[in-house]
Write a structure and sequence with these properties.
The complex is a heterodimer of chains A (about 180) and B (about 500).
Chain A (H helix, E strand, L loop, with lengths): L2 H21 L9 E2 L7 E2 L3 H5 L3 H23 L8 H28 L5 E2 L2 E2 H12 L2 H15 L2 H21 L1
Antiparallel strand pairs in A: 1-2, 3-4
Helix pairs in contact in A: 1-3, 3-4, 4-5
Chain B lengths: L2 H26 L5 H6 L6 H12 L2 H14 L4 H19 L1 H8 L5 H9 L2 H35 L9 H49 L3 H12 L12 H14 L4 H7 L8 H32 L11 H9 L2 H39 L6 H23 L1 H24 L8 H20 L10 H19 L7 H8 L1
The chains are: A mainly alpha (about 180), B mainly alpha (about 500).
Chain lengths: ~180, ~500
């Protein structure tokens, strides 16, 4: 399937999730409840009541977003409408980010059940997955960009072709004057 | 704040402002024409560009508003931070090569110039320039007000100065900003960004250690205190909730590829092949400066919950209060200079692209040619935008915060489809780009100004971005593509 059509499909899928979410009742107390004691702070209230019924919907919303982001990365890497073997590198990167994102949900599900939530490092486990995992996972794509830049994103041949285009354009402008 | 602490802070900030003026004078001699004024002659090296990229992204909102949001909402606002690693990837994969090549090929000196070349359509370029101008006015007004507020709180503690009215603080801080932007254009802007970025990084690392030593048990101690009060506040969704956080993830990740002040920096590099080094340095720089956002917000929420510190009068006080009460005076001086640096490094970029929109892009789209003596008009335009944005900042009060949010959403929703997607997809049409920009402006305006509440607190900017992207793809797929200029087509095939 062509990448732009796939991206369009992902956007439509995001619309479906937003549509279903808008038909699903929100938190009874609303979000960002004023703190009982401090006026300048908000509080969340009961996590089970806010999120217990929309966990799958939220997970779908996030995973579709990650697929859209990775699709955009791939769109910028195509050469003559083609990704070549890099396609698998993007699939692996997308799965990595989706796995870390899913870990946030799995550990948050546990967080909602526990009276004394378990810690992973200095934060509760789902927060650590967010702060360390989801922040760091895209470094895979940073590495991919650095490693494949000369071989795939802008090869020496491409650079040469561009220099020729530039020279032709400047010549054309000189002649125009 | 004690008088001696205030004097040290004042001295650090004064030294920083003198440095900015010095850079402006130095850059004046290097600015010979509009290409230098708007594009730095396309001569920027790797370090300067990468630091300018991240320091202009981390604005006053990040250094002042960010800690305030963590104090108020817990973990929620960190979704804006964690998305930057993938957000920068999206920007560089989509635009690092393409925008630089088209910019050099057509000698574009602004983003709308490159848009005109890609779509062969002055109407699309004009709409892009209008979207940039609207976003700039909102964002710049918010930055100017933040800059004046920080300066006012610094001067208030200095005995021989005393309380200074906010109007005077706007005039003083804008005078420094406008001086180096008018004299040195983007060259002064990026070289001050270099210093500003380094100051911000040092400040963030020092603050991290200061924050960890303020609460017993460091971050774990903070987490446990917040958890005891409200477990959701320290959960991944904070108090905002799941869909609000995930919509921020969407708009701040994709929106990173729609920030004109960042994209234009990619057009200024000496060599397109530098892009592969710019990405990791920018990601690292932003990650380091974001430590301030996280650490101050969490420590201030903890201290107030523990009763160690009185409740803040407003969340934006989190950073100044922490610095005044818990940081060493020299560190406070460096960080206050860092606060001004964060604000100014974003504001100077906006002044530059705003001036380009009114003196170069819009006249060119309407008249078909540039203004005579464009360099002089560029300087006048820079001054004019600063004056109008200052009046906006002073007169609109609460409206400025709304305008700031409107600015980010406008950039993201209008520019991501047109530039980030359109420069990588030959089938994208000028009609689709125009409709996407117009729709994004209308939806953003409608949602922000009428304060429409979306289900589950979904962010209005994310909603506008989803609409503009969907329209862009749908119209492009439904209409027949316009033939591209052969040189543009050749670049899009590379």
């Amino acid at each position: 399937m062509k990448l732009p059509i796939m991206l369009f499909g992902l956007l439509l899928a995001l619309w479906i999730v937003v549509g279903v979410a808008s038909m699903t009742p929100g938190s009874r107390d609303g979000y960002k409840i004023p703190h009982a004691q401090f006026e300048t702070m908000d509080q969340g209230g009961s996590g089970q009541q806010r999120h217990g019924h929309i966990l799958v919907l939220g997970w779908s919303f996030g995973v579709l977003q990650i697929a859209t982001f990775v699709g955009c990365l791939a769109l910028g890497t195509r050469r003559k409408q083609c990704l070549g073997r890099l396609k698998w590198a993007f699939v692996i990167g997308g799965l990595l980010c989706a796995a870390v994102f899913s870990a946030i949900f799995v550990s948050y599900h546990g967080f909602l059940q526990q009276v004394e939530p378990s810690f992973l490092g200095p934060f509760p486990a789902p927060t650590t997955w967010l702060l360390i995992g989801l922040w760091a996972a895209p470094l895979y794509f940073v590495l991919l960009y650095v490693i494949t830049f000369d071989r795939h994103i802008l090869t020496a041949d491409d650079y040469e072709k561009f220099q020729q285009l530039l020279a032709a354009r400047r010549q054309q402008q000189e002649n125009g004057r | 704040m004690e008088a001696w602490r205030a004097t040290i802070v004042f001295a650090c900030v004064a030294a920083y402002m003198v440095m900015c003026i010095g850079v402006g004078l130095w850059a004046l001699r290097r600015t010979q024409n509009t290409r230098d004024f708007f594009m730095a002659g396309r001569h920027l090296g790797i370090l300067v560009t990468s630091i300018a990229v991240f320091s202009s992204t981390m604005s006053g909102f990040g250094f002042v508003g960010g800690p305030g949001l963590v104090y108020r909402m817990g973990i929620s606002s960190l979704w804006m931070v964690i998305c930057t690693s993938i957000g920068y990837c999206v920007s560089f994969f989509l635009l690092g090569k393409r925008i630089r090549l088209i910019g050099e090929l057509r000698d574009s000196i602004s983003l709308p110039d490159a848009v005109a070349a890609r779509y062969n359509s002055q109407a699309t370029a004009c709409l892009t320039a209008i979207a940039i101008l609207l976003g700039v006015m909102g964002y710049l007004a918010a930055q100017i007000l933040a800059m004046a507020t920080v300066l006012q709180s610094i001067l208030a503690g200095v005995e021989f100065v005393g309380v200074v009215r906010i109007e005077w603080c706007v005039i003083i801080s804008c005078a420094v900003l406008v001086f180096y932007c008018v004299t040195g254009g983007i060259i002064a802007s990026v070289y001050t960004d270099l210093v500003q970025g380094l100051v911000m990084m040092i400040a963030a690392v020092l603050v991290l250690f200061a924050a960890m030593s303020t609460v017993e048990g460091g971050f774990e101690g903070m987490s446990r205190t917040i958890l005891r009060d409200d477990p959701e506040a320290i959960s991944p969704w904070g108090t905002l909730g799941m869909f609000g956080c995930l919509s921020w993830y969407f708009v701040f990740t994709l929106g990173a590829a729609g920030q004109p002040h960042v994209i234009t920096k990619m057009m200024m590099t000496r060599d397109v092949r530098d892009a592969k080094r710019l990405l990791p340095i920018s990601v690292l720089g932003y990650a380091v400066t974001a430590l301030l956002w996280i650490s101050i917000g969490l420590v201030m929420r903890t201290l107030v919950l523990q009763g160690t510190h009185p409740e803040l009068t407003k969340p934006d006080e989190a950073a100044p209060q922490f610095l005044q009460h818990y940081a060493h005076p020299v560190l406070a001086g460096i960080v206050f200079a860092g606060l001004l640096a964060a604000i100014m490094s974003t504001a100077d970029s906006f002044l530059n692209i705003g001036a380009a929109a009114i003196v170069h892009d819009i006249p060119r789209a309407i008249r078909g040619r540039s203004l005579h003596n464009e360099l002089i008009w560029a300087r006048v335009g820079t001054l004019g935008i600063a004056v109008v944005a200052s009046f906006f900042a002073l007169s609109s009060g609460e409206l400025v915060a709304l305008l700031g949010a409107f600015g980010w959403g406008t950039f993201a929703a209008a520019i991501v489809p047109t530039v980030a997607i359109g420069f990588n997809w030959k089938r994208a049409t000028p009609l689709a780009a125009c409709v996407a920009i117009a729709a994004s402006l209308s939806v953003n305006f409608f949602v922000k100004f009428f304060q429409i509440k979306l289900p589950h607190d979904i962010d209005g900017g994310a909603f506008a971005l989803l609409i503009s992207l969907t329209l862009f793809f749908a119209i492009s797929l439904a209409s027949s593509p316009k033939p591209l200029d052969p040189d543009i087509e050749a670049v899009m095939d590379l």
